[in-house]
Structures are given as C-alpha cells and as structure tokens.
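ingest -> validate -> predict -> emit
validate: passed (alphabet ok, no gaps, 584 aa)
predict: started
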Amino acid sequence: MAPPLVSVPMKKDKNKKPSLVLTLSAAGLLIGAGSAAYWLLSQRQPYWSDLLVGANIIPGDALFAVSLTTDPQQWQQLRQFGTRETQTELDKNLVELRDRFLTNNGYDFQKDVAPWVGDDVTIAILAPATASKPAPKPVTTNEDAANDQQSMVIVLPVKNPEIAKSILAQPKTLKQGKWIDRTYQGIAIKQNQGQAGENFSAALLDGRFLVITDNPKATERAIDAYKNKTSLATTGGFTENFRKIGNYQPFAQFYVNVPTAAKIAAASPNRPLPAQVLAQLQNNQGLAGTMTLEPEGIRFKGVSWLNPSSQRVLAVENKAGEMQSRLPAETLMMLSGGNLQRLWGDYVLTSQGNPLSPIAPEQIRGGIKSLTNLDLDKDLLSWMKGEFSLSVIPTTAKQGSPDNFRAGLVFMVQGSDRQSAETSLKQLDDVMRNQYQFQVQPAKVANQPVVNWVSPYGTLTATHGWLDGDIAFLVVGAPITDKIVSKPNNTLASTIPFQQTVPTEPNPTNGQFFLDVERTVKNFPLPTLIPNQQTLLDATRSIGMTSAVSDSRSNIYDIFIGLKKVTNSTALPSPGSNKGNFVK
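emit:
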C-alpha cells in the first residue's frame, strides 16, 4: 500500500529501550508514505491512545505529524516482518537516524534518554511561517530565511522531570559552536550557536514535554501554540475524528493537513495547482491514521474529514459487501463500491481541472464517447446506482487458448433501471458489430442467456449478461463467464486469505478491496509504479481494505497488509560497529 522519518524504540521493557533516533528513523519511513499524528497525554481513557502525544504543542498549521512507539518489543516485531532485503533497508534508516541524532552528538539512548522518556514520541513538519501570507516577500535576513523553510518539531513526553532537567541543563559539548541560553514567553530554551547546518533548540514545557526543533523560530511557534491554544488539538475536526481510530498500544499514528499541503503545492514553481483546484481542496481538512502490529501483518485504521466550514457534505450511504459472494475462490483481485454513479460524481467534483488527477473526467467522457458513441453520464451511469465490483479471475489454460488470455477482467454492477440498461447494452452490441466488425452472438452459459462479442479472428473477446435479474456483468479476456454465472460453491468470501485479510469493520461498508499479492506476482507481470516495488511485493502476502462513510463529513477506513516473516532475524548493529545487539 499505498503508495510512497524518525524512529525511537522503547517502552514496556524498562531495561531495554532502543535509540531515540532509531524510533526517529522509522518515523522517516512512515513520513515517506505520507503520514502524521498525535496522542494527548491527558486522555479520557487512560489505556487507549485516543490522540497523539504533543497534539497540544504542535502548531495547528503543521503539514503533518507522526507519533511512534518507544517500545523495543514492537520495534523488534516490525523488523521480523518482510524479507532480508526489507529488513536491511529498515535497519539502514534506523542506524542512520540513531547516529545522526544521538551517537554523533555523544549521546547513548539507554544511558541518556531511556531513564526519562515516555512511551511515544511525535515528529512534526511545520510549513514555512510565510506560507500563509498573501504575497511572498523578498528574503533579506537570516530570520526571513528561517521562516521560509520547513522545520521539524520533536515532542518527547517526560516521565522523570528531574533527570530530563539535569540533561538539558548540562548538555554534551558540541564538536563545533557552543550552547546558549535564552527565554521566550517565560520558557527557558537551550540552543546551539555556530554549528554549520545544525540549529537545534530544546525547551521543557511544564516539566512534561521536551520539545526539540531544528529551527529557533519553530521552538517559538510550538510555545505559542501551547500557550495560546492554537495547536493541532484545537484544529477543526481533529479531536473528534482522531478518536474514531483510537487503538490500544499503536505502533504509530499520523496526521496530514490537507489544506496546508495544498497551499504549498499551489505555490510550487514546478506543478502549481490551479485556483479552482486549490478551492476544492480547501473543502478537505485532514487525513489521519493509526498503525498497529499484528501477528501476521500491519493494520491501519484511517479517517479523512471535511473542513468544518465547508459547504460540501457526504451522503451517508453504505450498501456494499455482497460482490465477494458472487466471485469464485480463485479470484486474485477485487475492488468493490456501493454506488458507482455517486462515486463518479465525487471524482468529478474533486478531479475536474486537477493536474494531479490520474485521468481527467473530461478525457474519460470523451474516450467513451469516441469509442462507443455513448454518453457516460446519461447512457451508462444513470442506471448504475447500486453496488459494483471490478475483479481479476485467472483461468486454467486450455488447449488452443492464446497466452495473453490467462485471466479475465470482470465488471459487475447492480442496475437501478434494467430497461435503460438493456437499451445501452444493445447500443454497445451495435457498435461492436458495425464499427469494429465483431460477431455479436447470443448464447447460454450454465443455462443463462449471455451475449458474446467475438473478434474478426474468431477469439472470444467479451461476454455480457445478467445475474439474478439486476446485476449486469461484462467479462473481458479469458472465457471465465461460467465461473460467475454458475454461482460458485466456493466463493471468494469463503476463502481463508480473504477472511484473514479483508477487515470485517466498518460494517456496513461502502467498499472493499482485496489483492492476493503472492499469487498475482507469481503469475502475472506488474508495471513498476513505485521505487523498490519488487522488494516490497516480495515481502507481502495480501492486502485488504474496508471503508465506510462515517457521517456527513468523514470517511473511515480499515486496511490490513499481510506480510511474510524473516526467519532468524539479526540484531540491529550497535553504534560504531557492523554487528551488535539491538540498540543498547
């Protein structure tokens, strides 16, 4: 999933707490995926992480934030997932961050940090302070330059204030430059001076939180947010939506500020966002998630919500969850949704004129009109108001079957008006017959009437028909129509991989996704979409997702990634060596 930090292992085991940078480095991995989050120390439920550590300190306009556990057992569990290659890549990031933040500055995590740090730490990236201003001003001073840079804020909860105070009062000697003391709004700040490329500042807030930044102005912004109550905790919709995804002892939590990210993208000289797209994105407020480690993989619970002041509202309609019972057990991939017409309307609303959209709505409409002479909205989507699915079903090779038909692509949709649907399908038959010279042949499969489109070369290319009177289907590629028309005894829904991968919550749902990664990669070549894709695929067994509309302003998601495990996983190298024990 989905798509492309900082790490700090530590927690329950008080005798072993890995390096702060270790935890800070895996945060780097999560940030690369695009995530951030927070957990408030004063939770209403003492044993559940409703919110993110430092949410009352991180400025509300932060681009994103990610909270990471400091429990060494969870970090060790993470390192056991995947393959040797993925473990090596993770270890590389952990070691680099550990050395940058601790070892290179003379600190040892177990000795200097573990005695006082809490169970989770949060890393946030702040947008440039000048990003919210209407017009950019020339950068003429060092202060202006600092304001025009993104900066990082690290919030470490303090369990033992006395030890934390003593370390802050007597920091290690710098290799270059010196430490200076200053105050801001009555808060003592320790920051370095004269060290090229490093501008660290540290402040202890109320003896409960140690705040470390890479920019003196970022420290002041964090103090302002804390004292003036302009932090993430007060951002519209943040608290109520974050609590929808709370989980016991999460490995990580994250938050992404959509409108702030959109403003920065709009100002980019490379791919600026048009004004209308920026206005559309302002309707969205946040995306947040919780990551937990399970015996067979990683689970993400996510929520996205609209800006409280947005005029847009969501239709609370969750009517999916049946298509997997119509597909055979051997199905490799299934994507389903509750209302295709509404999904298209939402896509048009958020994608029209957006250069970052995969395909512009106008291109899709134009392409269908050019190929079939049908109007997408009037002739097709007008009767596609029910549940739909798109699936890939492999076929057993038969003598004489061409090599490129090793699987069939199956589209199903529940129709709301069969008469209109029949009219559209007849038009399609005429186009295939007259414009493309296909043979359009009525036939029967499992005693059910279907229509076959046969190419001029005699190869069965596509089949369409009806299931149970209101489910229209179209099969393209391999002739696997019999697998769905004959109502399979062993359905996809009944298989162990599907049941162990696709979450059962939220229920009811407005959509699900399932991909058997192992079988798909083994039998079919996949296009390269992300860096190191093959390494990630080799580490993954399956991916499942279930989503729902939570209320008129938010959607919730549950995603599970089934992972392989490394046998006899090695320990993370100790500082200054290529081998050693897990960060001591």
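The first helix runs from residue 20 to 33.
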